[in-house]
Design goal:
The chain is an alpha/beta fold. It has 12 helices and 11 strands. The chain starts with a strand and ends in a 7-residue tail after the last helix.
Length: 314
């Protein structure tokens, strides 16, 4: 029979004839999670709950999702998008984990928190998860990045086997607690970015409406395709135009190019808004700093698009 780990969704083929009737639980060899197993004749209450279903929010059941906010070019609004998407989902009632994999560690600064430990300590096993997770807002937790992640990259690079799964092995035991895991990545293409793409199922790409960002998008798409050859469940789901300014002719032209190439995956643009750049200085999200601003409205629209529910945050 085939049993599926409710934590990491890995399948295990088990010879049922060799199992004692007393065996009621299994341990996943991939993530170490223990879970009950069902047999023919078991009642529904005895069966393990599907991994992808979480507690109802607003009367509905939602799948657990892992989303990377990524592009190899810097300056396109990745961290701004990661923070405000995660905070918006939390405001909508979801439990959200924001993971910062950038050595600059700007997510903590933008949220106005100073964690004593973060992603580095979790991946190296220095402390347990509860000591790494910083509750930044109600229903929003942060695994902070920072300069120490440079050492983690060297650690991954020295591995002879399954180096690309290092992040997955560290996060899988805890990500089952959350409805959404949003992962902010650093500019460039390195071993930690590859780890992120092997961990997530969905990719959201912020693209500033300028020529160099389009070039970066094309290069990143080629690199993403190389990972998809080995990670079949990975999909580019959202392309988010950022710094949209109707006063700039080039913005409209590039937006039309994106519409032609990405069609249904293209999200409404995030308009240029000075409030978005001011909010981090106060350690606030755009919803807290300027809730009536165009930036707040645009990110609320993005939250609805990602969650697939136009009634949220209304």
């Amino acid at each position: 029979m085939i049993i599926i780990c409710p934590s990491c969704n890995r399948q295990h083929k088990v010879d049922e004839t060799r199992l004692s009737e007393k065996v009621k639980a299994a341990k996943c060899v991939f993530c170490g999670h223990r879970f009950p197993i069902s047999r023919p004749g078991d009642t529904e209450s005895e069966a393990a709950k599907p991994a992808e279903v979480v507690q109802p929010v607003h009367g509905k059941e939602w799948p657990r999702r892992r989303i990377a906010v990524s592009l190899s070019k810097g300056g396109v609004g990745k961290t701004t998008t990661s923070v405000n998407l995660a905070a918006g989902l939390a405001l909508a009632g979801f439990k959200v984990l924001l993971v910062d994999t950038d050595t600059q560690g700007q997510a903590a600064y933008m949220l106005g928190v100073k964690p004593k430990a973060g992603l580095t300590e979790l991946m190296t096993g220095e402390v347990i998860a509860e000591q790494c997770l910083a509750e930044a807002r109600e229903r929003l937790w942060l695994l902070a990045g920072g300069r120490s992640l440079a050492g983690v990259k060297r650690l991954i690079a020295r591995k002879d086997f399954r180096g690309e799964m290092t992040l997955t092995e560290a996060l899988t035991p805890i990500d089952g607690r959350f409805d959404y895991v949003i992962v902010d990545t650093s500019p460039g293409w390195d071993v930690l970015t590859i780890n992120v793409l092997f961990y997530v199922q969905e990719v959201l790409i912020p693209v500033s409406l300028e020529v160099m960002s389009i070039q970066g998008l094309l290069e990143f798409s080629r690199s993403l395709a190389s990972v998809q050859n080995y990670h079949k469940d990975l999909a580019l789901k959202y392309v988010v135009p950022t710094f949209f300014d109707k006063r700039v002719k080039q913005s409209e032209e590039i937006l039309n190019q994106l519409k032609a190439h990405y069609n249904s995956r293209l999200c409404p643009p995030i308009r240029y808004n000075v409030r978005l750049s001011e909010a981090p200085g106060y350690g606030k999200t755009i919803y807290e700093y300027a809730p009536g601003s165009p930036g707040a409205k645009d990110y609320r629209d993005l939250v609805r698009r990602v969650a697939g529910d136009q009634t949220l945050l209304s």
